[in-house]
Automatic annotation (TrEMBL):
<feature type="domain" description="OB-fold nucleic acid binding">
    <location>
        <begin position="14"/>
        <end position="106"/>
    </location>
</feature>
<dbReference type="GO" id="GO:0009318">
    <property type="term" value="C:exodeoxyribonuclease VII complex"/>
</dbReference>
<keyword id="KW-0963">Cytoplasm</keyword>
<comment type="subunit">
    <text>Heterooligomer composed of large and small subunits.</text>
</comment>
<keyword id="KW-0378">Hydrolase</keyword>
<dbReference type="Pfam" id="PF13742">
    <property type="entry name" value="tRNA_anti_2"/>
</dbReference>
<keyword id="KW-0540">Nuclease</keyword>
<dbReference type="GO" id="GO:0008855">
    <property type="term" value="F:exodeoxyribonuclease VII activity"/>
</dbReference>
<dbReference type="InterPro" id="IPR020579">
    <property type="entry name" value="Exonuc_VII_lsu_C"/>
</dbReference>
<protein>
    <recommendedName>
        <fullName>Exodeoxyribonuclease 7 large subunit</fullName>
        <ecNumber>3.1.11.6</ecNumber>
    </recommendedName>
</protein>
<dbReference type="GO" id="GO:0005737">
    <property type="term" value="C:cytoplasm"/>
</dbReference>
<dbReference type="Pfam" id="PF02601">
    <property type="entry name" value="Exonuc_VII_L"/>
</dbReference>
<feature type="coiled-coil region">
    <location>
        <begin position="270"/>
        <end position="305"/>
    </location>
</feature>
<dbReference type="InterPro" id="IPR003753">
    <property type="entry name" value="Exonuc_VII_L"/>
</dbReference>
<dbReference type="InterPro" id="IPR025824">
    <property type="entry name" value="OB-fold_nuc-bd_dom"/>
</dbReference>
<feature type="domain" description="Exonuclease VII large subunit C-terminal">
    <location>
        <begin position="129"/>
        <end position="439"/>
    </location>
</feature>
<comment type="function">
    <text>Bidirectionally degrades single-stranded DNA into large acid-insoluble oligonucleotides, which are then degraded further into small acid-soluble oligonucleotides.</text>
</comment>
Amino acid sequence: MIDVLSSPTSRAVSVTELNRQVRDVLEGSFPVLWVAGEISNFKRYDSGHCYFSLKDAGAQVRCVMFRNRAALLDFQPREGAQVEVRAVVSLYEARGDFQLTIEAMRPAGLGALFEAFEQLKKKLAAEGVFDAARKRPVPAFPRAIGIVTSLKAAALRDVLTTLRRRMPGLPVILYPCAVQGASAANEIAAAINAASARAEVDTLLVCRGGGSIEDLWSFNEEVVARAIAACSMPVVSGVGHETDVTIADFVADVRAATPTAAAELVSPNRQELQLRVAHLQARLARALRRQIEARMQKLDGLQRRLRHPGEALQRRREHLLRARSSLQRAIGQVLEQRRQRLLRDRLRLDHLAPDMAQRRLRLARQAERLAITMQQQQARRTQRLALLGARLAALNPTAVLARGYALVEDKAGHVVQAAAQLQRGDAVRIRFADEAVDAQVTATPHDSQPQLF
């Protein structure tokens, strides 16, 4: 810092340097302090900065409140208003004006209220009343809603209108009390205690419309905070406007910005629920349709795998026909070979011209033997064919069923080959020669007498 009181030979300082040093001296010498006075020549510029004078009966001082601080005000400063400001003593270097840089502002006379507010807040916080662990969730689908407010409060109409719009059939029970005045705090606490003792609602809504800090002070009383903390059901606080904060907001399980917002928090939205139900119905319908289609495809696959006994008989019949045809072709080939051989022998006989009588006799005997051989072979083939037919008939499931036997299938359509495959209560299907019946196993092989119904 330049020493302006040094010897006359010291260099001269500029006005800017002088004002900067004075500003530093002022800001370093005075702590941040509260100053009371009356607002004069108040102006708020488009930039958001506020300029005014603070005066009393004997003096005045220029003040500036920049935009970021002015935006935090919960009331509108006006000409002639008595206020208390928290300020930094400073100097505007460009003009050399002594001024206060305002950091906070409150209406005059509220200092004691703010002090009481902070003391109670610290006390309850130290006791754990504000702890998040004790906060209870608001039921998503309450049986009934309780409202603690005044019958004349405009907030009551807003809350009822919101509840009627969102969920018309939701029961509402009103616990009337004063929300402003000397006895309001005790009445609010009594209403909350009555709702807690009667336990006829799922959620309790404590609300009132906006107002000054004095109007809302009942919700900053300890008796109200204690009643909210001891309430047997979740409490939603909807006091004042969005910028208003009370002790009740800190104690309540949920804090809403406005009474209308509180009503929206505690009530389900009928339209949203209807849309959700419709969406779930559509999803359920799609899921059921997919399951039905999958079951239908599975049924088609089982039908393709199922083979009727008639198909086995048809395959056996076709095999028999092919065997008969092969036998006939074999016999025909043998006969043709014998004919060819006979023809060749006859040609040789004619060519050699032997003893015709003897040859004829020999030929007759050979022809006789050939005929006998052919008859024997034909008889053997016929006997074999009959034997194959008899064996095929013996393998025919229908023929077996016709002799008094039955075919037992389980519920999956598989043939039951042993009694051990069944358990008591199993559903089976019994096929006879003419038709099939459904039955149920009432006893297992371990029982004395298994029975089928």
